Amino acid sequence: MAEREHEHVRVAVIGSGFGGLGAAVRLRRQGITDFVVLERAGSVGGTWRDNSYPGCACDVPSHLYSFSFAPNPEWPRNFSGQPHIRAYLERVTDTFGLRPHIRFDSEVRSLRWNGEELHWEVETARGALTADVVVSATGPLSDPKVPDVPGLDSFPGKVFHSARWDHDYDLRGKRIAMIGTGASAIQIVPAVQPTVDRLTLFQRTPAWVLPRADRRISGLERWLHTRVPATRVARRGLLWGIREMQVSAFTKRPNELGLIEGLAKGHMKRAVKDPALRAKLTPDYRIGCKRILLSNSYYPALTQPNVDVVASGLKEVRGNVLVAADGTETEADAIVFGTGFHVTDMPIAHRVTGANGTTLAEEWKDGMESLRGASAAGFPNFLTIIGPNTGLGNSSMILMIESQLNYLVDYMRQLDVLGGKIALNARPSAVHAWTRGIQRRMERTVWTTGGCDSWYLDANGRNTTAWPGTTAEFRKLTREVDLAEYEVLRVPASRTGARAGQAAKAVA
């Protein structure tokens, strides 16, 4: 028999975070075992592997931030920390027998659609393979964004991003500059403040912060959730329902959020007695325009004598002196960037070349768009988990991931029903219609009318990140694949027969 030139699989999944592992579980449950999970690192976990900074935890309750098909009755807290979430993903990997499918240290370097063979040619750090279907589950919070600050290269101290925390660097007794005031920064600041000599927070835009209703989950509760699963289901359902009821304020009636602003201001006033500091920390935009942050310790940390708040972004670096846009100068031994990720310009898009010979990044140069958050026109049999306009501002992304996994499963079922060597290519008209509908709805949302510049918006000011509806609505819209929205591509019967003949000669 002639030796195969390369490996071929039915499905190649990229990434082993919640999206990638969830896809692997659902594929196995569907009876599909001819797949691989390509992971660039040496272990599973995705965002929850990469983000290990001090104080790292989820801002969504644990019983909602977990798979419905893999419940965990042993969550230790309402809002569990990074070590517990990562351990949960390791258990999911083992419980569902996913390790034989995972290729570690296999960063995907390029994906190229072969229109003659109707498959994807995949180049990884450990070799090449082909796949009928590719599922990109790289996630929007996977590649850190560090601003291009003049003079940064000349800084003599330590520099790292919150998602690439250097645990070998001892912060004790050091002068630390924290750049940014997002979800990572408000956890890092109170975690490191007690041990550093001086902490300077560079705040380009203040955040709205609400109390964090966190507590230890008692042993009795965990026992009940284990022995009486209905209690666990009810808890998850209650957490979900509360958040579903909040959606209309974000998407249809932003003015109703004024009451929540009052709660946030009261939370700040109780912790921050200095009027000048409160003025620095008070946003001038509608709450919800940026992601609402949860913390009981952030404001108290900012009032400590070894903390300075610079109400301005970092403009330049001169040796070990950091200069803010307002002219404030600060000396530092280390710079920690909490400046977010490449969300609207995902790096994986530069590595994917579709049917027209253009990359996904080129197709998305005016803004990301895909059919039901999954399929981009011109990229057959390429599905994205957590694709454009699938993000949430108030609930669990696991709910959206599971909806997209439903879509993936039905996509594979449709391929089986159609039979033969085929591919589905999203029709441009269907993609544009879906996108227009979302953008029309986006005009009324707090993300558009709230008066802020957030990471939800792309370079053109368009929200290509968030979903302007409930998770229940999204689940309904992604339950099944509508073949009318796709062009069905087939390998000509003559070529199929020729390949079969070649294969028979090779065996002979």
Features:
five-stranded parallel beta sheet, eight-stranded mixed beta sheet, 32% helix, disordered C terminus, FAD/NAD(P)-binding domain, 15 helices, single chain, 508 residues, 2 domains, alpha/beta
How far is it from the N-terminal to the C-terminal residue, by CA?
7 Å
Number of E-state strands: 20
Provide the structure class.
Answer: alpha/beta
Percent helix: 25-40%
Number of helices: 15
Q: Report the sheet-strand fraction.
A: 15-25%
Describe what is shown at a glance:
The chain is α/β, with parallel strands linked by helices and 508 residues long.
Question: Could you describe the 3D structure shown?
Answer:
- It is a single chain.
- The chain has 508 residues and is α/β, with parallel strands linked by helices.
- The protein is built from 15 helices and 20 strands.
- It has two domains: 7-143 and 343-502, FAD/NAD(P)-binding domain (3-Layer(bba) Sandwich), CATH 3.50.50; 152-215 and 223-337, 3-Layer(bba) Sandwich (FAD/NAD(P)-binding domain).
- It has helices spanning 18-29, 47-50, 82-95, 185-192, 219-227, 229-251, 258-271, 275-281, 298-302, 360-363, 397-418, 428-442, 446-449, 471-477, 493-507, and strands at 7-14, 35-38, 102-103, 108-114, 119-124, 127-136, 158-161, 175-179, 198-202, 209-210, 293-294, 307-310, 314-318, 321-324, 329-331, 334-337, 352-353, 382-384, 422-426, 486-490.
- Strands 1, 2, 3, 4, 5, 6, 17 and 18 form an eight-stranded mixed sheet that branches. A five-stranded parallel sheet has the order 7-16-8-9-12, covered by helices on one side. Strands 13-14-15 form a three-stranded antiparallel sheet, with no helix packed on it.
- Helix 1 runs parallel beside helix 11 (397-418), helix 5 (219-227) packs across helix 6 and helix 11 runs parallel beside helix 14 (471-477).
- 44% of the residues are buried.
- The model is unreliable at 497-508 (pLDDT under 50).
